[in-house]
Design goal:
By secondary structure, this protein is mainly α. The chain has 2 domains: 70 residues, no CATH class; 159 residues, no CATH class. Helices cover 83% and strands 0% of the residues. The chain contains 10 helices and no strands.
């Protein structure tokens, strides 16, 4: 038993040293002095479970400081940029998906075959607006700032997606008109120009901006209220 305990103690000590070395290799310059101090004091800690617990405790304090620094950095961004970040990020992701599905690997199925996926996508979009409102809001005016963040996210997403479709449909008109829905829609549109047809539909989407913005504001405000409730619950704990 004594040999087993000593072996276990050495293994735990080695694991703690490895943890300190791993964290030290990824530490910022401002954190290296702390990690070096942890390593220096490590040798005087009693062998056994105390060593990994001591290492974890010291690193958790440092991680907490890092998280607080990241939080301060996030809120030091200009308000407009912070509120726009969610819309710009999602817009960039959707641009990649639109280019891929319409130009690089164009789909030739009707949208009716993907109804369930569209429902899931729009539901996820509403949840995303709520998350934007929850994260980008500020404590001074939680409801208004969260509604603003959600609305701005929704408007940016719709504008970015619409502009992407306008560019793709005009640059790759022959490719996009092979889609069954666009081909059938053009045949029943009464128009003689395919370009006029796609542009009419694309610019019509911009008329949805007020409605889209209202949904974004509503779900953004909901996210802000959820964050407010979470903060109140934490204060009572």
């Amino acid at each position: 038993m004594g040999m087993l305990a000593r072996t276990g103690g050495r293994l735990m000590g080695a694991a703690a040293r490895g943890l300190l070395a791993w964290f030290g290799s990824r530490a910022n310059p401002s954190e290296r002095a702390w990690t070096e101090a942890l390593r220096g004091e490590f040798e005087v800690v009693e062998e056994g479970m105390a060593q990994p617990l001591w290492a974890l405790g010291g690193l958790s304090l440092l991680s907490g400081t890092r998280r607080r620094t990241l939080t301060r950095t996030w809120y030091s961004w200009p308000g407009l940029l912070r509120s726009s970040a969610f819309g710009l990020v999602l817009g960039a992701v959707l641009v990649i998906g639109i280019v891929r599905s319409n130009v690089i690997v164009p789909a030739h199925e009707s949208d009716d075959e993907y109804t369930a996926w569209y429902v899931a996508f729009y539901f996820g979009l509403l949840v995303y607006f709520g998350v934007a409102g929850m994260v980008a809001s500020n404590a001074r005016d939680r409801l208004a700032s969260s509604a603003w963040a959600g609305a701005l996210t929704a408007i940016l997403v719709l504008v970015i997606v619409t502009v992407t479709f306008i560019v793709i449909d005009n640059l790759f008109l022959d490719v996009v008109m092979q889609q069954p829905d666009k081909a059938n829609g053009f045949r029943h549109s009464g128009l003689t120009s395919q370009r006029d047809y796609v542009n009419r539909d694309n610019f019509a989407a911009l008329a949805l901006l007020p409605i889209f913005g209202a949904f974004g504001a509503g779900f953004g405000a909901l996210g802000g209220l959820i964050r407010k409730q979470i903060g109140q619950l934490r204060r009572f704990q």
